[in-house]
Amino acid sequence: MINGRFATAIHILTLLAREEGDVASSYIAGSININPVLVRKEISVLRDAGFVATQEGKNGGSRLAVRPSKIRLSDLYKIIYREGLFTHSKNMPNQHCAVGRRIGTIMDNLNVEAEQALLKRLHAISIQDLLDKV
Amino acid sequence: MINGRFATAIHILTLLAREEGDVASSYIAGSININPVLVRKEISVLRDAGFVATQEGKNGGSRLAVRPSKIRLSDLYKIIYREGLFTHSKNMPNQHCAVGRRIGTIMDNLNVEAEQALLKRLHAISIQDLLDKV
DNA sequence: TGTTCTGTAATAAAAATAATTACAGAATGA
DNA sequence: TCATTCTGTAATTATTTTTATTACAGAACA
């Protein structure tokens, strides 16, 4: 679902987009109302993607590394749902049944279609757009 | 995610679309490789929606109640994800923070946008279309 | 009237998410 | 220098969600 990590990432980035200096993970966690460790983990993903920069040590924290208008939600989606939002069931369908044999491929194609539709829409929305709504 | 119940429903309907008479839940469960009770539960939802008809008792089972071309995946999606695929986190964000105060509405809007994009695509695909691929 | 289906409730097991604890290392500055 | 306050990350626990199982009443049929 689009919540969970995706919502967390959006919240983090929108918050950072509004703040001047380095923002501590505990502060961000206080705004989202989740555990600071989860924030740090998500930030490490965002950092790997080049969206944020982090300063360790006292008075440290994170800040945006690019302009908010450069962060599209489609990028975020791809980073976070690397393995596809619409994942496989791990129960192997019955291969002796014609439908069971084909359903895997059918669902795969469907997932691709669905994700493409989603990404196309998310591509048009940036963190700046969300920021404008705050 | 699009799997789980959604994939189950699609599998059930595609199977029923290929079969002549009433199909038992245990047979369907054997094709999907899940528990028959889950199949019966999902069928009860599909029945409430008017897509399938069920015959109880010996030699009973389910069959399609409408033509496969009349069942669009967008309909299925709506039936199954009544409360929205992209649901809320139940942690209330910090209302003393400007971002925390607005993020709920922002995510709600985003979810609507995302679902609309998804539904638009799913609207163009029917069970008949999937059947043609089997 | 026994057999074989369904419907559904209740419970248990498994998987996915989120929270917490713990601690080493980095930067700061008194 | 060294106490303080940050981060990063591993390990564990707790919670929630999803799936599976068990159980049994009722329907239809031969």
UniProtKB/TrEMBL annotation, chains A, B:
Superkingdom of this entry's organism?
Bacteria
Q: Where is the signal peptide?
A: none
Q: Cross-referenced InterPro entries, in alphabetical order?
A: Tscrpt_reg_Rrf2, WH-like_DNA-bd_sf, WH_DNA-bd_sf
Q: Name one Pfam family in it.
A: Rrf2
Q: How is this protein named in the record? A: Rrf2 family transcriptional regulator
Which species? Niabella pedocola
